[in-house]
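> call design_seq(struct)
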Protein backbone atom coordinates (compact mmCIF):
# COMPACT_ATOMS: atom_id res chain seq x y z
CA UNK A 1 0.00 0.00 0.00
CA UNK A 2 2.92 2.32 0.51
CA UNK A 3 4.19 4.50 -2.35
CA UNK A 4 5.64 7.83 -3.27
CA UNK A 5 3.82 11.11 -2.58
CA UNK A 6 1.57 12.09 -5.47
CA UNK A 7 2.44 8.98 -7.46
CA UNK A 8 -1.15 7.78 -7.85
CA UNK A 9 -2.84 11.16 -8.25
CA UNK A 10 -4.74 10.15 -11.36
CA UNK A 11 -6.13 6.76 -10.12
CA UNK A 12 -8.96 6.19 -7.65
CA UNK A 13 -7.59 5.94 -4.15
CA UNK A 14 -9.20 4.93 -0.90
CA UNK A 15 -8.02 5.61 2.64
CA UNK A 16 -8.10 2.48 4.78
CA UNK A 17 -7.41 2.10 8.47
CA UNK A 18 -4.67 -0.52 8.45
CA UNK A 19 -3.14 -0.05 11.89
CA UNK A 20 -4.41 0.83 15.36
CA UNK A 21 -2.90 1.15 18.79
CA UNK A 22 -3.54 2.52 22.25
CA UNK A 23 -1.54 3.52 25.30
CA UNK A 24 -2.87 3.95 28.82
CA UNK A 25 -1.14 4.96 32.04
CA UNK A 26 -0.91 2.17 34.62
CA UNK A 27 -2.49 4.00 37.53
CA UNK A 28 -6.20 3.28 37.91
CA UNK A 29 -8.27 5.71 39.98
CA UNK A 30 -11.63 4.38 41.11
CA UNK A 31 -14.71 6.41 41.93
CA UNK A 32 -14.26 5.50 45.60
CA UNK A 33 -10.79 7.02 45.55
CA UNK A 34 -12.20 10.21 44.04
CA UNK A 35 -14.82 10.32 46.76
CA UNK A 36 -11.93 10.75 49.20
CA UNK A 37 -10.83 14.02 47.58
CA UNK A 38 -14.12 15.65 46.48
CA UNK A 39 -17.71 15.47 47.73
CA UNK A 40 -18.97 12.72 45.43
CA UNK A 41 -19.78 9.01 45.47
CA UNK A 42 -19.33 5.94 43.32
CA UNK A 43 -23.11 5.73 43.04
CA UNK A 44 -23.46 9.34 41.76
CA UNK A 45 -20.70 8.99 39.17
CA UNK A 46 -21.95 5.62 37.90
CA UNK A 47 -25.58 6.63 37.57
CA UNK A 48 -24.95 10.07 36.01
CA UNK A 49 -22.08 9.08 33.70
CA UNK A 50 -21.46 5.32 33.63
CA UNK A 51 -17.81 5.84 34.58
CA UNK A 52 -16.34 3.41 37.16
CA UNK A 53 -12.64 4.18 36.95
CA UNK A 54 -10.13 6.08 34.87
CA UNK A 55 -6.38 5.96 34.13
CA UNK A 56 -4.21 8.83 35.29
CA UNK A 57 -0.62 9.64 34.27
CA UNK A 58 0.82 10.11 37.76
CA UNK A 59 4.42 9.90 36.57
CA UNK A 60 5.43 13.38 35.31
CA UNK A 61 7.61 11.82 32.61
CA UNK A 62 4.45 10.32 31.06
CA UNK A 63 3.02 13.02 28.80
CA UNK A 64 0.65 13.46 25.88
CA UNK A 65 3.61 12.96 23.53
CA UNK A 66 4.96 9.81 25.22
CA UNK A 67 1.50 8.23 25.31
CA UNK A 68 0.89 9.30 21.69
CA UNK A 69 4.23 7.84 20.63
CA UNK A 70 3.41 4.49 22.28
CA UNK A 71 0.00 4.34 20.61
CA UNK A 72 1.49 5.29 17.22
CA UNK A 73 4.19 2.62 17.53
CA UNK A 74 1.49 0.03 18.24
CA UNK A 75 -0.46 1.17 15.15
CA UNK A 76 2.65 0.90 12.95
CA UNK A 77 3.23 -2.57 14.40
CA UNK A 78 -0.24 -3.76 13.37
CA UNK A 79 0.19 -2.28 9.87
CA UNK A 80 3.79 -3.56 9.72
CA UNK A 81 5.03 -0.20 8.43
CA UNK A 82 8.44 1.26 9.28
CA UNK A 83 8.31 4.81 10.68
CA UNK A 84 10.35 6.30 7.82
CA UNK A 85 7.44 5.54 5.47
CA UNK A 86 5.00 7.74 7.39
CA UNK A 87 4.18 10.89 5.38
CA UNK A 88 2.22 12.85 7.96
CA UNK A 89 1.43 12.81 11.67
CA UNK A 90 -1.74 14.54 12.83
CA UNK A 91 -2.07 14.71 16.59
CA UNK A 92 -5.47 15.78 17.85
CA UNK A 93 -5.14 16.89 21.45
CA UNK A 94 -6.84 19.04 24.07
CA UNK A 95 -3.84 18.78 26.40
CA UNK A 96 -0.82 19.42 24.17
CA UNK A 97 2.56 19.44 25.87
CA UNK A 98 3.03 23.08 24.79
CA UNK A 99 1.28 25.70 22.67
CA UNK A 100 4.29 25.08 20.47
CA UNK A 101 6.15 22.98 19.48
CA UNK A 102 3.33 20.69 18.46
CA UNK A 103 2.89 17.41 20.29
CA UNK A 104 2.82 15.83 16.81
CA UNK A 105 6.40 17.01 16.19
CA UNK A 106 7.54 15.46 19.48
CA UNK A 107 5.86 12.20 18.47
CA UNK A 108 7.54 12.40 15.03
CA UNK A 109 10.89 12.66 16.82
CA UNK A 110 10.03 9.79 19.17
CA UNK A 111 9.11 7.56 16.25
CA UNK A 112 12.07 8.56 14.10
CA UNK A 113 9.54 9.29 11.35
CA UNK A 114 12.17 11.24 9.43
CA UNK A 115 10.07 11.79 6.30
CA UNK A 116 6.88 12.91 8.01
CA UNK A 117 5.28 16.32 8.39
CA UNK A 118 3.61 16.85 11.75
CA UNK A 119 1.04 19.16 13.28
CA UNK A 120 -1.50 19.34 16.09
CA UNK A 121 -5.19 19.60 15.48
CA UNK A 122 -7.35 21.57 17.89
CA UNK A 123 -11.01 20.59 17.74
CA UNK A 124 -11.27 19.25 21.32
CA UNK A 125 -12.96 15.85 21.65
CA UNK A 126 -14.04 15.90 17.97
CA UNK A 127 -10.37 16.23 16.97
CA UNK A 128 -9.70 12.57 16.17
CA UNK A 129 -12.60 12.40 13.68
CA UNK A 130 -11.51 15.75 12.20
CA UNK A 131 -8.08 14.16 11.73
CA UNK A 132 -9.53 11.10 9.97
CA UNK A 133 -11.44 13.39 7.61
CA UNK A 134 -8.32 15.44 6.80
CA UNK A 135 -6.09 12.40 6.35
CA UNK A 136 -8.54 10.63 4.04
CA UNK A 137 -8.75 13.80 1.93
CA UNK A 138 -4.96 13.99 1.63
CA UNK A 139 -4.82 10.33 0.65
CA UNK A 140 -7.78 10.54 -1.74
CA UNK A 141 -6.20 13.42 -3.65
CA UNK A 142 -2.95 11.53 -4.03
CA UNK A 143 -0.84 13.84 -1.90
CA UNK A 144 0.18 11.24 0.65
CA UNK A 145 0.09 7.50 1.24
CA UNK A 146 0.62 6.85 4.95
CA UNK A 147 -0.83 9.09 7.62
CA UNK A 148 -0.91 8.59 11.37
CA UNK A 149 -3.89 10.13 13.14
CA UNK A 150 -3.43 10.23 16.90
CA UNK A 151 -5.53 11.35 19.84
CA UNK A 152 -3.34 11.90 22.92
CA UNK A 153 -4.28 13.35 26.29
CA UNK A 154 -3.08 14.02 29.80
CA UNK A 155 -6.24 15.84 30.86
CA UNK A 156 -5.45 15.12 34.51
CA UNK A 157 -2.91 17.97 34.28
CA UNK A 158 -5.58 20.55 33.36
CA UNK A 159 -8.41 19.28 35.55
CA UNK A 160 -9.25 21.06 38.80
CA UNK A 161 -9.04 18.21 41.32
CA UNK A 162 -11.18 20.20 43.74
CA UNK A 163 -14.07 20.63 41.24
CA UNK A 164 -16.41 17.65 41.44
CA UNK A 165 -18.32 18.87 38.37
CA UNK A 166 -15.38 18.06 36.11
CA UNK A 167 -12.70 15.98 37.84
CA UNK A 168 -14.84 12.83 37.93
CA UNK A 169 -15.35 12.86 34.17
CA UNK A 170 -11.90 12.82 32.57
CA UNK A 171 -9.02 10.39 32.13
CA UNK A 172 -5.64 10.11 30.37
CA UNK A 173 -4.60 7.97 27.42
CA UNK A 174 -3.84 7.87 23.72
CA UNK A 175 -5.03 6.07 20.63
CA UNK A 176 -3.73 6.07 17.08
CA UNK A 177 -4.62 4.76 13.66
CA UNK A 178 -2.63 4.50 10.46
CA UNK A 179 -4.50 5.42 7.29
CA UNK A 180 -3.06 4.03 4.08
CA UNK A 181 -3.78 4.59 0.41
CA UNK A 182 -5.24 1.64 -1.45
CA UNK A 183 -6.99 0.97 -4.78
CA UNK A 184 -9.42 -1.35 -2.92
CA UNK A 185 -12.81 0.39 -2.55
CA UNK A 186 -13.83 1.07 1.05
CA UNK A 187 -12.12 2.72 3.98
CA UNK A 188 -13.29 6.23 4.85
CA UNK A 189 -16.58 6.73 2.97
CA UNK A 190 -17.76 10.08 4.29
CA UNK A 191 -17.22 12.67 6.94
CA UNK A 192 -19.21 15.48 8.49
CA UNK A 193 -17.56 18.30 10.43
CA UNK A 194 -19.34 21.00 12.39
CA UNK A 195 -18.73 23.92 14.70
CA UNK A 196 -20.73 26.47 16.67
CA UNK A 197 -18.31 28.91 18.27
CA UNK A 198 -21.14 30.77 20.00
CA UNK A 199 -20.96 27.96 22.58
CA UNK A 200 -17.22 28.36 23.14
CA UNK A 201 -17.65 29.42 26.76
CA UNK A 202 -19.58 26.25 27.71
CA UNK A 203 -16.42 24.14 27.85
CA UNK A 204 -13.25 26.13 28.09
CA UNK A 205 -9.71 26.40 29.44
CA UNK A 206 -9.95 30.16 30.05
CA UNK A 207 -6.32 31.23 30.52
CA UNK A 208 -2.89 30.39 29.19
CA UNK A 209 -3.63 31.44 25.63
CA UNK A 210 -3.02 34.86 24.08
CA UNK A 211 -6.30 36.31 25.38
CA UNK A 212 -5.44 35.70 29.02
CA UNK A 213 -1.74 34.93 29.30
CA UNK A 214 -0.60 33.28 32.53
CA UNK A 215 -0.34 35.74 35.41
CA UNK A 216 -0.36 35.32 39.17
CA UNK A 217 -4.05 36.36 39.05
CA UNK A 218 -5.05 33.77 36.41
CA UNK A 219 -3.31 31.06 38.40
CA UNK A 220 -4.90 32.18 41.69
CA UNK A 221 -8.35 32.23 40.02
CA UNK A 222 -7.90 28.65 38.73
CA UNK A 223 -8.28 29.80 35.13
CA UNK A 224 -5.83 27.21 33.85
CA UNK A 225 -8.30 24.42 34.60
CA UNK A 226 -11.23 23.09 32.55
CA UNK A 227 -14.49 24.98 33.17
CA UNK A 228 -17.73 23.47 31.99
CA UNK A 229 -21.47 24.04 31.97
CA UNK A 230 -22.31 20.33 32.15
CA UNK A 231 -26.06 20.59 31.53
CA UNK A 232 -25.66 22.78 28.42
CA UNK A 233 -22.98 20.47 27.01
CA UNK A 234 -25.24 17.50 27.71
CA UNK A 235 -28.13 19.04 25.74
CA UNK A 236 -25.86 20.00 22.84
CA UNK A 237 -24.23 16.55 22.74
CA UNK A 238 -27.42 14.47 22.65
CA UNK A 239 -28.77 16.53 19.73
CA UNK A 240 -25.61 16.75 17.69
CA UNK A 241 -24.40 13.15 18.02
CA UNK A 242 -27.58 11.78 16.46
CA UNK A 243 -27.66 14.41 13.69
CA UNK A 244 -23.99 14.02 12.73
CA UNK A 245 -24.24 10.21 12.73
CA UNK A 246 -27.23 10.32 10.41
CA UNK A 247 -25.58 12.85 8.09
CA UNK A 248 -22.40 10.74 7.78
CA UNK A 249 -24.46 7.62 7.05
CA UNK A 250 -26.51 9.37 4.35
CA UNK A 251 -23.45 10.99 2.80
CA UNK A 252 -21.89 7.53 2.48
CA UNK A 253 -25.00 6.33 0.61
CA UNK A 254 -25.98 4.00 3.45
CA UNK A 255 -28.99 3.63 5.72
CA UNK A 256 -29.06 3.13 9.49
CA UNK A 257 -29.78 -0.56 8.98
CA UNK A 258 -26.50 -0.91 7.05
CA UNK A 259 -24.48 0.17 10.10
CA UNK A 260 -22.77 -2.64 12.01
CA UNK A 261 -21.06 -0.64 14.73
CA UNK A 262 -21.05 2.91 16.07
CA UNK A 263 -18.09 4.08 18.13
CA UNK A 264 -19.17 7.31 19.81
CA UNK A 265 -17.04 9.70 21.81
CA UNK A 266 -16.90 8.18 25.30
CA UNK A 267 -18.09 11.10 27.42
CA UNK A 268 -21.21 9.87 29.18
CA UNK A 269 -23.21 6.65 28.86
CA UNK A 270 -26.47 8.60 29.09
CA UNK A 271 -25.49 10.92 26.22
CA UNK A 272 -24.51 7.96 24.06
CA UNK A 273 -27.63 5.92 24.77
CA UNK A 274 -30.01 8.81 24.36
CA UNK A 275 -28.42 9.86 21.02
CA UNK A 276 -28.45 6.36 19.64
CA UNK A 277 -32.05 5.79 20.79
CA UNK A 278 -33.04 8.74 18.59
CA UNK A 279 -31.57 6.79 15.65
CA UNK A 280 -33.25 3.57 16.80
CA UNK A 281 -29.88 1.83 16.80
CA UNK A 282 -29.90 -1.34 18.89
CA UNK A 283 -27.54 -1.26 21.88
CA UNK A 284 -25.48 -4.19 20.59
CA UNK A 285 -24.37 -1.96 17.70
CA UNK A 286 -22.94 0.68 20.01
CA UNK A 287 -19.47 0.33 21.48
CA UNK A 288 -18.99 1.72 24.99
CA UNK A 289 -15.87 1.41 27.12
CA UNK A 290 -16.01 4.64 29.13
CA UNK A 291 -16.65 2.53 32.25
CA UNK A 292 -12.90 1.91 32.51
CA UNK A 293 -11.36 5.09 31.13
CA UNK A 294 -13.75 8.03 31.57
CA UNK A 295 -13.65 10.75 28.95
CA UNK A 296 -10.20 10.77 27.34
CA UNK A 297 -11.20 13.51 24.86
CA UNK A 298 -9.49 13.02 21.47
CA UNK A 299 -8.19 9.61 22.55
CA UNK A 300 -11.56 8.11 23.44
CA UNK A 301 -12.61 7.00 19.94
CA UNK A 302 -9.29 5.45 18.86
CA UNK A 303 -8.93 3.65 22.23
CA UNK A 304 -12.48 2.31 21.80
CA UNK A 305 -11.69 1.30 18.21
CA UNK A 306 -8.71 -0.76 19.42
CA UNK A 307 -10.86 -2.50 22.01
CA UNK A 308 -13.63 -3.14 19.46
CA UNK A 309 -11.05 -4.89 17.26
CA UNK A 310 -9.65 -6.83 20.26
CA UNK A 311 -13.19 -7.98 21.07
CA UNK A 312 -13.92 -9.04 17.46
CA UNK A 313 -16.67 -6.47 17.15
CA UNK A 314 -15.51 -5.53 13.62
CA UNK A 315 -15.44 -7.88 10.63
CA UNK A 316 -14.25 -7.22 7.09
CA UNK A 317 -16.80 -5.14 5.13
CA UNK A 318 -18.58 -3.97 8.26
CA UNK A 319 -19.87 -0.40 8.14
CA UNK A 320 -18.57 1.59 11.08
CA UNK A 321 -19.47 5.10 12.21
CA UNK A 322 -17.26 7.11 14.56
CA UNK A 323 -18.86 10.22 16.00
CA UNK A 324 -17.60 12.87 18.39
CA UNK A 325 -18.50 16.19 19.98
CA UNK A 326 -16.68 18.60 22.20
CA UNK A 327 -15.49 22.06 23.08
CA UNK A 328 -15.64 24.69 20.40
CA UNK A 329 -18.39 23.68 20.21
CA UNK A 330 -17.50 21.08 17.60
CA UNK A 331 -18.85 17.81 16.29
CA UNK A 332 -17.73 15.30 13.68
CA UNK A 333 -18.74 11.94 12.27
CA UNK A 334 -17.23 9.58 9.75
CA UNK A 335 -18.51 6.42 8.06
CA UNK A 336 -15.90 3.76 7.32
CA UNK A 337 -16.06 0.46 5.50
CA UNK A 338 -13.82 -1.77 7.56
CA UNK A 339 -11.86 -3.59 4.89
CA UNK A 340 -8.96 -4.93 6.93
CA UNK A 341 -9.01 -8.38 8.47
CA UNK A 342 -7.99 -8.61 12.14
CA UNK A 343 -4.44 -7.95 13.29
CA UNK A 344 -1.85 -9.58 11.01
CA UNK A 345 0.96 -11.84 12.13
CA UNK A 346 4.17 -9.83 12.00
CA UNK A 347 7.38 -11.90 12.06
CA UNK A 348 9.29 -11.56 15.33
CA UNK A 349 12.46 -10.33 13.58
CA UNK A 350 10.56 -7.39 12.15
CA UNK A 351 9.21 -6.45 15.58
CA UNK A 352 12.79 -6.52 16.91
CA UNK A 353 14.01 -4.51 13.92
CA UNK A 354 11.40 -1.86 14.57
CA UNK A 355 12.09 -1.64 18.29
CA UNK A 356 15.80 -1.23 17.44
CA UNK A 357 14.81 1.58 15.06
CA UNK A 358 13.05 3.34 17.97
CA UNK A 359 16.27 3.07 19.97
CA UNK A 360 18.09 4.62 17.02
CA UNK A 361 15.47 7.37 16.81
CA UNK A 362 16.31 8.26 20.42
CA UNK A 363 20.05 8.35 19.67
CA UNK A 364 19.41 10.40 16.50
CA UNK A 365 17.34 12.91 18.47
CA UNK A 366 20.08 13.28 21.13
CA UNK A 367 22.70 13.66 18.42
CA UNK A 368 20.71 16.35 16.59
CA UNK A 369 20.21 18.27 19.84
CA UNK A 370 23.92 18.02 20.65
CA UNK A 371 25.08 19.06 17.16
CA UNK A 372 22.70 22.03 17.25
CA UNK A 373 24.35 23.11 20.52
CA UNK A 374 27.85 22.77 19.03
CA UNK A 375 26.73 24.68 15.93
CA UNK A 376 25.32 27.40 18.20
CA UNK A 377 28.61 27.74 20.09
CA UNK A 378 30.41 28.29 16.77
CA UNK A 379 28.28 31.28 15.90
CA UNK A 380 29.43 34.70 17.14
CA UNK A 381 27.12 37.20 18.82
CA UNK A 382 26.66 39.32 15.71
CA UNK A 383 25.42 36.22 13.90
CA UNK A 384 28.54 35.46 11.81
CA UNK A 385 29.15 31.78 11.31
CA UNK A 386 32.45 30.42 12.55
CA UNK A 387 33.57 29.75 8.97
CA UNK A 388 33.19 33.45 8.13
CA UNK A 389 35.21 34.40 11.20
CA UNK A 390 37.90 31.98 10.13
CA UNK A 391 38.10 33.27 6.56
CA UNK A 392 38.34 36.86 7.85
CA UNK A 393 41.24 35.85 10.11
CA UNK A 394 43.01 34.10 7.22
CA UNK A 395 42.51 37.23 5.06
CA UNK A 396 43.96 39.43 7.84
CA UNK A 397 46.91 37.09 8.25
CA UNK A 398 47.57 37.20 4.45
CA UNK A 399 47.40 40.99 4.43
CA UNK A 400 49.80 41.23 7.37
CA UNK A 401 52.32 39.04 5.46
CA UNK A 402 51.98 41.19 2.37
CA UNK A 403 52.63 44.43 4.34
N1 LIG B 1 -20.81 14.21 42.68
C1 LIG B 1 -21.93 14.53 43.32
N2 LIG B 1 -22.72 15.54 42.95
C2 LIG B 1 -22.35 16.24 41.86
C3 LIG B 1 -21.18 15.97 41.15
C4 LIG B 1 -20.39 14.90 41.61
N3 LIG B 1 -19.25 14.53 40.98
N4 LIG B 1 -21.07 16.83 40.13
C5 LIG B 1 -22.14 17.63 40.19
N5 LIG B 1 -22.90 17.28 41.24
C6 LIG B 1 -24.14 17.87 41.68
C7 LIG B 1 -24.35 19.25 41.13
O1 LIG B 1 -23.69 20.19 41.95
C8 LIG B 1 -25.85 19.39 41.18
O2 LIG B 1 -26.19 19.78 42.48
P1 LIG B 1 -27.28 20.93 42.70
O3 LIG B 1 -28.53 20.42 42.07
O4 LIG B 1 -27.34 21.03 44.18
O5 LIG B 1 -26.72 22.14 42.02
C9 LIG B 1 -26.36 17.96 41.03
O6 LIG B 1 -25.23 17.10 41.21
C10 LIG B 1 -26.99 17.66 39.70
O7 LIG B 1 -26.27 18.27 38.67
P2 LIG B 1 -26.75 18.11 37.17
O8 LIG B 1 -25.95 19.06 36.36
O9 LIG B 1 -28.22 18.18 37.04
O10 LIG B 1 -26.37 16.61 36.88
P3 LIG B 1 -26.49 15.88 35.52
O11 LIG B 1 -27.42 14.77 35.65
O12 LIG B 1 -26.68 16.83 34.36
O13 LIG B 1 -25.00 15.29 35.35
C11 LIG B 1 -22.98 15.79 34.22
C12 LIG B 1 -23.90 16.17 35.34
C13 LIG B 1 -21.78 16.72 34.21
C14 LIG B 1 -22.50 14.37 34.44
C15 LIG B 1 -23.73 15.86 32.87
O14 LIG B 1 -24.37 17.11 32.76
C16 LIG B 1 -22.84 15.68 31.68
O15 LIG B 1 -22.32 14.61 31.45
N6 LIG B 1 -22.68 16.71 30.85
C17 LIG B 1 -21.83 16.65 29.70
C18 LIG B 1 -20.41 16.81 30.13
C19 LIG B 1 -19.43 16.32 29.10
O16 LIG B 1 -19.61 15.31 28.50
N7 LIG B 1 -18.36 17.08 28.91
C20 LIG B 1 -17.31 16.75 28.04
C21 LIG B 1 -17.70 17.02 26.66
S1 LIG B 1 -16.48 16.47 25.54
Amino acid sequence: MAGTNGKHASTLRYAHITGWGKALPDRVITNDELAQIVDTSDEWIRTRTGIRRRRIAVDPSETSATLGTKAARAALEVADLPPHKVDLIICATSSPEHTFPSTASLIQDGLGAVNAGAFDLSAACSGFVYGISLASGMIGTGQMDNILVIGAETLSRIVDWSDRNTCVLFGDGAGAVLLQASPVPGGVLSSVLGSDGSGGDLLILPAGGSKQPATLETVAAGKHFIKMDGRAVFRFATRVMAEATLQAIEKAGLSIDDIDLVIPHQANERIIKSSMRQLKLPEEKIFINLYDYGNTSTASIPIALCEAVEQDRLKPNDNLVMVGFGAGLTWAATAVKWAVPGAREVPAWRVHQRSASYGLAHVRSRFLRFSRKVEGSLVTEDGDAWSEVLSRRIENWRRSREE
